Amino acid sequence: MKPLHALxxxxxxxxxxxxxxxxxxxxxxxxxxxCIAALEIDGWKNLKxxxxxxxxxxxxxxxxxxxxxxxxxxxGFLFTxxxxxxxxxxxxxxxxxxxxxxxxxxxxxxxxxxAFAGTALAALASxxxxxxxxLFSAFTLGAFRFGFYSPLEIKAGxxxxxxxxxxxxxxxxxxNWQYPVAVFAVxxxxxxCWMNAFLIMRRIxxx
Length: 207
Description:
- By secondary structure, the protein is mostly helical.
- The protein has one domain.
- The protein is built from 8 helices and 2 strands; from the N terminus they run H-H-H-E-H-H-H-H-E-H.
- The protein is globular, with a radius of gyration of 16 Å.
- The protein starts with a helix and ends with a helix.
């Protein structure tokens, strides 16, 4: 998948989420169709990675909501909307294929532990925007400094930070979900959250 394709999928997906958010089942069906289209473009070679991202992303989101880190306005069946795990798989697939092809990554149990522990810590720290920003900044710098992340992943991490934050920003500003503490509605730490979530997830999906 080319970067332009990934950008188009992200842009269209962000708008559909924003405007179909209040019909959970319809949006779930639409996101599922988008996932199928993205998988088809790459010949279904990423199906396993997609499914792992769906499971891990869905579990992490439910943990965060359960701990009070953030909340969704329309989730009628679980702590989070039904389409959200698919959204995680979709996002990881687009970022991986569109921006991270030249950045090698390998499965790491540390990454799996970090995904769950980091989600819990982020949810608990989100009540203080400054502390959350400090923790994300310190972890990001440390992960690059000590080699957990590769310099080759900077482009992919920045893409995740920008696209993920933009996607969430649209839905936050349209009232679809919210963070309890955010001076500008979109938390200052959200770009770093997206960067780390993707860079950690791309290690997990290689299980």
